[in-house]
Write a sequence for this structure.
């Protein structure tokens, strides 16, 4: 029954429209930004906006003497569903563009394509020279051949509103090999036009000893067999690298990367999706936001990964480092391991050197197949800590759970468990000598387990 007061309308619909308009504006001017990935990471902002809107509605209704609006009206629910559908559409569009970077989505259904292929005159190139390959739209394939010649095969595809315009675009296009002070530059001329799109795909054969730089704004890059350094850049495309005898660097904005059998060091920066590194003889460095999964195997020197979610450093990774949206797995580290992260569960197995873990809002599980030889330090903000050691281990431990308990399978005269007003503690020694173990968590149980 109504009390006669006018029901006040909510501001939530207006806030949703602002969000929707902002997304459209960003997609219009920054199509490579990855709106779907941003939403997947920051979707709780919608709940925050809803809470702010309802708080403002409540305070405004009290001041004006009006009836409070309902928690969620039918119109607001429909608009919220529309926002989610738009974001899902952006996600599907993004995935399609990643797989087909040369695809042109246009309202004009009468677009026509025209294609041609050509072999450029080969160039003799000296050992250790540098080759630069550039295309605004297209794939780059570079591999090793016999001899000391640079050979370039090109496939050119023009798309325009009619067949004649597409052919004219191809006539105006020119692909050149220009000599530079340290080698050659391979690139198209007049590729970018206002009347259509021109895709220039390269298949390049190189002497083994040269170094290479390759840049494709929209397109995949694949390189194999070179002994020199490799530097790759792509705005929207995948990178695949195999059997390189020196350092490799790769910069992505969107796309996947896979690198195998690298004699030197690897550095990957930017943003992307799946990253896979296997068999790196030098260092492996990842810096940026990669939505994963990220898998790294067998890095001889140091693996270092930094992102907004954490900072990980592993010395001599003989096993696997894997990261996804909710968990980090580390196995078989020949040296030290240092992990600082938040909002992720952490699983670690068999670290030969010192282990340092700092985590928040996640569970931590550490397992050793052999007795640890170096110190272990685990600090967790919210979550359980589970440490499993072989029965023959010797160590000195100090463990505290400020709002939980500490449970131990180990029993020794020098081991002292305690419960102090809800704070669990465990301290003391097991065995004659061994590393120091320090564990602390604010909310959660600490388990010290004994394996056979």
């Amino acid at each position: 029954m109504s009390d006669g007061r006018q029901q006040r309308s909510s501001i939530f619909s207006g806030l949703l429209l602002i969000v929707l308009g902002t997304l459209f504006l960003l997609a219009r001017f920054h199509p490579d930004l990855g709106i779907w990935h941003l939403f997947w990471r920051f979707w709780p902002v919608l709940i925050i906006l809803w809470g702010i809107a309802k708080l403002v509605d409540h305070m405004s209704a009290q001041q004006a003497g009006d009836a409070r609006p309902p928690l969620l009206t039918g119109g607001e629910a429909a608009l919220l569903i529309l926002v989610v559908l738009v974001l899902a559409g952006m996600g599907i569009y993004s995935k399609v563009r990643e797989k087909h970077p040369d695809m042109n989505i246009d309202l004009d259904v009468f677009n026509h394509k025209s294609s041609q292929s050509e072999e450029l005159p080969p160039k003799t190139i000296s050992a250790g020279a540098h080759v630069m390959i550039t295309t605004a739209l297209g794939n780059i394939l570079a591999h090793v051949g016999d001899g000391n010649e640079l050979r370039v095969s090109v496939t050119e595809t023009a798309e325009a509103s009619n067949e004649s315009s597409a052919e004219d675009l191809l006539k105006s296009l020119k692909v050149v090999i220009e000599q530079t002070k340290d080698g050659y530059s391979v690139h198209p001329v007049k590729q970018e036009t206002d009347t259509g799109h021109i895709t220039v795909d390269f298949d390049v054969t190189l002497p083994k000893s040269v170094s290479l730089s390759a840049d494709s704004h929209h397109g995949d890059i694949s390189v194999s067999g070179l002994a020199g350094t490799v530097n790759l850049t792509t705005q929207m495309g995948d990178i695949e690298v195999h059997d390189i005898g020196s350092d490799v660097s790769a910069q992505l904005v969107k796309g996947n990367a896979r690198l195998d059998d690298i004699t030197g060091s690897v550095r990957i920066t930017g943003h992307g999706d799946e990253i896979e590194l296997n068999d790196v003889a030098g260092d492996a460095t990842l810096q940026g936001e990669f939505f994963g999964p990220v898998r790294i195997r067998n890095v001889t020197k140091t693996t270092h990964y930094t992102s907004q979610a954490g900072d990980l450093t592993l010395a001599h990774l003989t096993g696997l480092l894997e990261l996804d949206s909710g968990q980090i797995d580390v196995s078989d580290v020949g040296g030290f391991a240092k992990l600082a992260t938040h909002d992720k569960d952490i699983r670690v197995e068999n670290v030969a050197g010192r282990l340092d873990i700092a985590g928040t809002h996640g569970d931590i599980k550490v397992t050793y197949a052999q007795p640890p030889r170096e110190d272990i330090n685990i600090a967790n903000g919210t979550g359980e800590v589970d440490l499993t050691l072989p029965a023959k281990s010797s160590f000195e431990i100090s463990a505290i759970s400020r709002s939980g308990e500490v449970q131990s399978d180990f029993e020794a005269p020098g081991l002292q468990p305690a419960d102090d007003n809800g704070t669990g503690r465990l301290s003391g020694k097991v065995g004659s000598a061994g590393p120091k173990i320090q564990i602390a968590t604010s909310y959660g149980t600490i388990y010290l387990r004994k394996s056979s």
The chain has five helices and 32 strands. Residues 74-99 form the longest helix (26 residues).
